């Protein structure tokens, strides 16, 4: 796999973290996206350049493997590279390492180019793709689909009206908020004593300002060493996002 | 005014901003608090040291004057100093300047030490105060009280259940979320075309996880050059926070 690799460091400060003294998943998503934005700027294909073509990059799926979440006060190294693409899809990898170089989080993701007017995905544009040096392939790695929640699985839910500050500079809901809605629905007591080990999230439709997002969760498996949860987010009964998560127990600080 | 001055730089990235391409007020509050935390660490009286005394710093009021909000992509300089104190109150000033050194935001604030067990304020502790070199005075500057919303002023309101990720590492609601609840209640169209010029916020009681915050706003004055809004936040009908804000029109990007 080719693709230019980009790395940068980030000091994790108090507002990056949660009660477990670890960086929160929503903030780590912000930071991964920041690394890819900074790489794009460096290669001359930042947001401004991309929008000249009437399009924007949109993530359709993340699959994260989490060895450990970084601690607040530590400095992490964020790395990313566009590894492969076909006519419509890009595959981008991310990793987060601690100060000693130990891998804390690895993520694979799929991105598409969405037309700003039609709000539909289109063919990738060579001028916006070539600078990353990613491999052209017939089929990009198929990330596993998120299993559907079946009707007989009773879910717990909360509703989240989209807020003004959930929108980024382009008026889209910032990706990290999906993770906030996804996780907040779980009891605080659970979130204080567990961290995710694997997180697979598929975005189906764009959540927008004015929407009321219903976030649902069901625990599908619980053993001594692992707990699994299945998630979905709907707007007016229509599925916008699905996710599955595996958890391990940690001792709270 | 004495008090050791502390400064640090911060690059404003995409998730620090909102649709106006300016840094959002909630994020600027995060950054001001970060500067004061970094100063405290440098002086050997960081959060860990303070908590050894069974207490924590709590802000009771901010008064901000905003010349302009910094743009996303720019680097700002954050400065802070503890300027004065009496037996119970500390006065701390903050400023944010752009790369050319122009002042964008000036804030004055009052802090107290809250006992972790009793959740009540107590006398300031010399060991935690002396390192800042602030002046001991009889009376600290009285920041203006926020005018009360009267019963005949019809307000617009939204409700905000406190979320898990609203809590900081100590389990307190991070200050910046008060500003999110305060501002989000205004229409998106208004927030996209106006920026605050003055913001006065008084914290009366601690909002906690499990609370449903009702954020109310009323427009009290509107001329060609200035709009004023009055705000309050209640939990079960009890006032937890009050604020007033002045606004000017800006051209949206």
Automatic annotation (TrEMBL), chains A, B:
Residues 154-248 form the Acyl-ACP thioesterase-like C-terminal domain. InterPro entries: Acyl-ACP_TE_C, Acyl-ACP_thioesterase_NHD, FATA/B, HotDog_dom_sf. GO terms for molecular function: acyl carrier activity; fatty acyl-[ACP] hydrolase activity. The keyword Transit peptide applies. SUPFAM superfamilies: Thioesterase/thiol ester dehydrase-isomerase (SSF54637). Keywords: Fatty acid biosynthesis, Fatty acid metabolism, Hydrolase, Lipid biosynthesis, Lipid metabolism, Transit peptide. Pfam families: Acyl-ACP_TE, Acyl-ACP_TE_C. This is Acyl-ACP thioesterase. It comes from Pediococcus parvulus.
């Amino acid at each position: 796999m080719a693709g230019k690799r980009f790395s940068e460091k980030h000091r994790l400060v108090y507002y990056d973290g949660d009660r477990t003294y670890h960086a929160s998943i929503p903030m780590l998503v912000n930071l991964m996206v920041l690394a890819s934005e900074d790489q794009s700027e460096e290669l001359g294909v930042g947001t401004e350049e991309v929008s000249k073509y009437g399009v924007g990059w949109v993530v359709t799926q993340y699959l994260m493997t989490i060895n450990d979440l970084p601690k607040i006060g530590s400095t992490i190294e964020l790395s990313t590279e566009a590894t492969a693409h076909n006519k419509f899809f890009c595959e981008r990898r991310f990793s987060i390492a601690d100060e000693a170089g130990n891998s804390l989080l690895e993520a694979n993701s799929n991105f598409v180019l969405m037309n700003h007017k039609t709000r539909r995905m289109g063919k990738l544009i060579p001028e916006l793709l070539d600078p990353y040096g990613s491999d052209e392939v017939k089929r990009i790695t198929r990330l596993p689909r998120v299993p559907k929640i079946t009707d007989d699985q009773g879910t717990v839910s909360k509703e989240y009206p989209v807020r003004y500050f959930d929108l980024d500079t382009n008026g889209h809901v910032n990706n990290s908020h999906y993770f906030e809605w996804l996780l907040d629905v779980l009891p605080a007591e659970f979130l204080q004593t567990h961290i995710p080990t694997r997180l697979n999230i598929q975005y189906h439709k764009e959540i927008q300002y004015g929407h009321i997002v219903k976030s649902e969760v069901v625990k599908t498996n619980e053993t001594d060493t692992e707990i699994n949860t299945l998630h979905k987010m709907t707007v007016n009964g229509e599925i916008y996002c699905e996710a599955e998560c595996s958890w391990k127990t940690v001792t709270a600080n």
